[in-house]
Amino acid sequence: MPGFWAKHFGDPLAVKASEDLLEGSKKIGELLETPEKLSEKKIEQFREAAVELDLGLKDLLDQGGGYLTSKEIQDVRSLLDRVQKFLDQLPPAAKPESAKAPEKLPPFRSESASLESEGHPEHNEDRAFADDEHAFYGVLDGVAGSLDGEAAARLGKEIMVNHAADFEGLDVAQTKRQLADIFNECRQALLEQSPKIYRQTFLKSVRQHTEKPRHTLIDTTATIVKLVADEAGKERAVVAHAGDSRLYRFNRKSGELKQLTFDHTPVLLDTAEKYGREAALKFQDLLNRLESYDQWQAIRSIKERARRGEKLYAPEEQGALRFTDEEIAFIDGHGLEAEIVEYLKGTQRPREVVAKTLIDQPEITDFELAEGDELLLTSDGIHDNLTADEIQQILAGDLDLLEDPAVQSAALKAGEIQAERLAAAAQARSRDRNSERAKPDDMTAVQIVLGQPRAAKQQAA
Fold first, then answer.
1. Fewer C-beta within 10 Å: the chain N or C terminus?
2. What are the residue boundaries of the structural domains of the chain, listed by start?
3. What backbone torsions phi and psi does residue 429 show, to the nearest 5 degrees?
4. What local confidence, expressed as pLDDT, does residue 455 receive?
């Protein structure tokens, strides 16, 4: 366990991760002592817990071992070996693989679009894939500050699509493990290719008398989703994520748009370290809805007028009521005003800076999907330029609600495919020199519609 010095002076996130890992291993060890009490359902939960423990240990080891002693690390590894032997010795009737096969999910329909940044129209550093047959989707965004972001995104995509068929028959826990293995393979490939690409880039710069490369690694963000049916036949999205490419859930019945991933950016990671993950998620949601820092200041003023009982007339004044008193109190209580300025104005660290990439350990989780849910993958060229409200309005088809004439016009001209509307609208915003959200970048969106009958897909083709 982390000692006195670690608890009081160490990295609080690493301390917490170390404590959670040891607590999880303790619970698994206790269950392993009384295997006769494990029902078939509990065996599946036991397997999932073991996978989470294994992933957690790998994550800590990648970060230098956290605050675990070498003996504690060895004990966890020994426990995982015992768990695997126990699962391998189960009679066929008790093994999850031998249980009744989960109900197959209905087919899916996806639409995607990608536009090159007008800053470099000759190439696109984004890559996306959409495999409806295997219900496997992803967006990768080459890191601009790396040696060659486009090469990294291209290589990552090639590896991932080659594994699409490997998920056949896997449950949720096994899918998580498979995604972790794919990310590990991508990491090794990026590290192996980086020296070769560096040499090529260096020699090219010498021949052409241009600036020599400042970075030695190729790198990319990645947000990957695999749709899986659990044992009850319910649809789940298993997500592996590193960086600031995003996965959203949009419910067509309720009109609700929710970001499912957490951006691995310095501003948000710093917020999570200071105030906890829940606070950082809440802050992320608020940032997604803001157009500018001036708007935030105006919201404060308008809310104060509303509290005094003054009548609000202008549309922008009414719109300010979408931000609650609790949200303003949250920003004040956590002292996050400076972070709003930094995020929207890029005063110290531009928004395109990411603190976690495909070379790092991914964040892997899963979500249950409900009737009416659709999924949306985006690179930051989409969601940095557009607010959450604008993305929601485009997905819902409420283009008349878009307040920016240029964004509205671009979305209308793009046609009926919503992914293309999002890319066109984001590109229109990127040209607006007066907008704090405007950012020239590649723009990629992949929309996934669940439960689309195969016949309907064929008719639409």
1. C
2. 4-98, 109-265+352-460, 280-345
3. -65, -35
4. 33
Q: Hey, what amino acid is at 228?
A: V
Question: Angle at CA 241, nearest 5°, toward 52 and 362?
Answer: 50
pLDDT over threshold 80, residue 3: no
Q: Which residue has the tokens 């995982």?
A: 80
pLDDT, mean over the chain? 83
pLDDT confidence of residue 435: 92
- For residues 376 and 235, what is the distance between their CA atoms, to the nearest angstrom? 16
CA distances from 228 to 97, 127, 225 (A): 15, 23, 10
Phi and psi at 89, nearest 5°, equal -90, 0
d(CA 407, CA 390): 9
Contacts of 216 (CB under 8 A, 6+ apart): 147, 194, 195, 198
| Cβ–Cβ under 8 Å, residues 289 and 344 | no
d(Cα 125, Cα 375) in Å, to the nearest integer?
A: 22
Nearest CA to 149 out of 123, 130, 129 is that of 123
Kindly report, residue by residue over 329-342, the tens digit of the pLDDT: 899 888 898 888 88
Q: Cα–Cα distance between 29 and 40 in angstroms, integer? A: 18
Q: Closest Cα to residue 243, out of 341, 145, 161?
A: 145
DSSP state of 403: -
137 contacts 130 by C-beta, under 8 angstroms: yes
305 CB neighbour count, 10 Å cutoff = 14
Taking alpha carbons only, the member of 225, 201, 266, 269 closest to residue 108 is 225
Integer Cα distance of 134 and 362 in angstroms: 21
Query: CA geometry: angle at 225 spanning 221 and 228, to 5°?
Result: 160
Bridge-partner residues for 430, per DSSP? none
- Rounding to the nearest 10 degrees, give the CA dihedral for residues 21, 23, 25, 28: -140
Helix (H, G, I), strand (E, B) or coil at 56: helix
- Supply the angle between the helices 266-275 and 277-289 in degrees, to the nearest 10: 140
**Cα–Cα distance measured from residue 408 to residue 122, given in angstroms and rounded to the nearest whole number:** 27
For domain 109-265+352-460, the CATH architecture is: 4-Layer Sandwich (3.60)
Q: Is the pTM of this model over 0.90?
A: no
Contact 299, 314 (CB under 8 A): no
User: What is the rounded distance in angstroms from the CA atom of residue 324 to the CA atom of residue 322?
Assistant: 6
Distance from C-alpha of 48 to C-alpha of 26, rounded to nearest angstrom: 15
Q: What is the pLDDT of residue 442?
A: 94
The tens digit of pLDDT for each residue in 160-177 reads 999 999 999 999 999 999
Helix axis angle, 325-334 relative to 293-307, nearest 10°? 120
Question: Of 65 and 198, which is predicted with more confidence?
Answer: 198
